[in-house]
Design goal:
Order of helices and strands: EHEHEEHHHEE
Strand content: 15-25%
Largest sheet: 4 strands, parallel
CATH architecture of the domain at 15-64 and 95-127: Alpha-Beta Complex
Shape: globular
Helix content: 25-40%
Structural class: alpha/beta
Strand order of the largest sheet: 5-2-1-6
CATH topology of the domain at 15-64 and 95-127: Ribosomal Protein L13p, Chain: A
CATH class of the domain at 15-64 and 95-127: Alpha Beta
Radius of gyration: 17 Å
Number of helices: 5
């Protein structure tokens, strides 16, 4: 029996909808990373994008356990001397709640060009509405 290697042309991606309200961030990020990578499929091939599209709603209502709510900071660097900026999780949740989930999922993907294209299949929204109703996403728990 020969090993089956998926090709980009043969993969038929699906659309999934996940409600992040009340879900723990790390556990949700693992689930999302596996879906957009295609790890849940029998045809998974590491060098090919076999993943599905994922829509996440209510990103602002994601939960962190323990003292992570107060301790988590996001760092950005402008490239200039003294250009480091630190933002608390509460500020990020207020201003751009989509960033919290995107940042967590990005850290769980491989660090290469393929992962950057996989990340474009993740659509995160802070509220309960999304513009992808025409794709008929399958609702997951």
């Amino acid at each position: 029996m020969k090993t089956y290697l998926a090709k980009k042309e043969t993969v038929q991606p699906k659309w999934y909808l996940i409600d992040a309200e009340g879900k723990v961030l790390g556990r949700l990020a693992v689930k999302l990373a596996n879906l957009i990578r295609g790890r849940n499929k029998a045809i998974y091939t590491p060098h090919c994008d076999t993943g599905d599209y994922v829509i996440v709603i209510n990103a602002a209502k994601v939960v962190l356990t323990g003292k992570k709510e107060e301790a988590t900071e996001y760092m950005s660097f402008s490239g200039y001397v003294g250009g480091e900026k630190y933002r608390k999780l509460a500020d990020v949740r207020r201003d751009k709640p989509e960033f919290i989930i995107m940042h967590a999922v990005k850290g769980m993907l491989p660090k290469n060009r393929l992962a950057r294209t996989m990340l474009t299949k993740l659509h995160v929204f802070g509220g309960a509405t999304h513009p992808h109703a025409a794709q008929n996403p399958i609702k997951l728990k």
